[in-house]
Amino acid sequence: MMKYFSALLLFFLSNFLSAQKKKDIKNFGIKTVITTETKNNRTINDQKFIYNKKGEIIEEINYDKEGIVKSKKTFKYNEKDDVIEEIEYDAKDEIKEKTQIKYSPSYKKTEELVTNKDNKILKKIIYSFNPNGLKKEKKTYDSLNNLIST
To answer: pTM here?
Structure first.
């Protein structure tokens, strides 16, 4: 019984702390957070997050078990702090995928366009809304513009 209570308490605390993270990062002027792992007196980077002045992640770096860069993501935001571009890089710092996100004038996500390093479309996602502004439908298209899911 105590295990379940502890797990539940840990779950709620982690959600509470993560909800405060962006606010805390902004308020304390945190620019970089690096998580490391220490084994056999050797400290190895696990992840690195770089933030802008608003507390938003602008770069995320993931490392392998040896501390070598495995992947990287960069993020750009609009004036409403919505992600408008996400670029994923491989270990060689070459673009793997680029996602461009469009929003309506009321800042609702309307489209995601995912391309590869050669700017070839991999998939496109279109969102539509009902007259009340609630998300009605999400359609996903493949690289040939064929509808693959609704």
So the answer is: 0.79
**Structure tokens, 106:** 């009321």
Whether 46 contacts 61, CB under 8 Å? no
Residue 60 is assigned to a structural domain of this protein: yes
Q: Is 84 among the domain residues?
A: no
Domain containing 47 equals 21-75
pLDDT, block means (10 residues), the chain with 150 residues:
47 43 88 92 94 96 94 96 97 96 93 96 96 92 96
